[in-house]
Amino acid sequence: MSSAGDAGRVGGDAVTEEPDRPPVLELAGVSKRFGAVQALFEVDLAVRAGEVLALVGDNGAGKSTLIKCIGGIYPIDGGEIRFEGRQVTMTGPKDAAALGIEIVYQDLALADNLDVVQNMFLGRERYRKILGFLPRLDEESMERAAMETLAGLSVTTLRSVRQPVVSLSGGQRQSVAVAKAVMWNSKLVILDEPTAALGVAQTRQVLDLVRRLGEQGLAVILISHNLHDVFEVADSIAVLRLGQLVDRFDASRTNQQEVVESITAGTLRQVPGMQEATS
What we know:
The protein is an alpha/beta fold. It is globular and about 65 Å long. The protein has helices at residues 3-8, 63-70, 93-99, 116-120, 139-152, 170-182, 200-215, 227-233, 256-265, 274-278; strands at residues 25-34, 37-47, 52-56, 78-83, 86-88, 101-104, 127-128, 136-137, 188-192, 219-223, 236-241, 244-250. It folds into 2 domains: 3-100 and 187-278, P-loop containing nucleotide triphosphate hydrolases (Rossmann fold), CATH 3.40.50.300; 110-186, no CATH class. Helices cover 33% and strands 24% of the residues. The chain has a 6-stranded mixed sheet with strand order 6-9-10-3-11-12, sandwiched between helices. It has a 4-stranded antiparallel sheet with strand order 2-1-4-5, covered by helices on one side. α6 (170-182) packs parallel to α7 (200-215).
């Protein structure tokens, strides 16, 4: 690696950096195994309020497994997850949501037959009580909240919040999915390949949206294979290789070549299969 790149590298253990800014999320020695497969091995990672952290790595590096551990889908086998300074145990996605962790997966999980408001409040609908009647959906309150959230994120491409999602472009769908994630007092938003399969103009909309999330003080983890997109918006870049965190870079002090070298040849603390073979 070049000396400029060495200056840009923060190192695998991000827990101790910037002590004046405590992490929103902190992973310490997180491991996950599926049978004989060691999917994650002693991963240390931290992300702070207002920071956009890009998580990169080749296919099979462990990125999806890591975010599913953070989101409560997979229980961890070792290590600790700390949120706002306290150790937490994730038993399911509801635990993550209660903490303020929202994940926007690549498939977006939007219902095409519902409109924007209905999607943003799906499963969390608001009701109002009318004397002598059963509670009814508070359509006015939900519509107002949806419009305020979209406006706060400077999403201006939607004709109406009552548009059915099936009529939206890919970039507009991403905007709705992100707005849905941030309107529930979120503190950490995780975006899984948000620009995949989008055109140039739609990609620009989504990257601007990611940047605004950080500017509004949210902690953001961005998973992407597109390093051009990563360098557009990320403050720091964490590299996973074969389930291990091999590098962390300050995005402003590194370059794509260095990150690619880390993705393909970053130093592993444990070679997969060696521990089993020697035990």
